[in-house]
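From the shared-data thread, chain only:
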Amino acid sequence: MRKNTKSLMGLCKQNLICIETKSETIEKENKNIELQWRA
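Structure, as tokens:
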């Protein structure tokens, strides 16, 4: 698991678009989770 994660992180560090896309996706997921807890 750790080796795979490190390789994925390395790819993302080389591709800023990948980092931005992942962060946006995480933010959207967190917002959805918050809405579910409130509801």
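The chain has one domain: 2-38.
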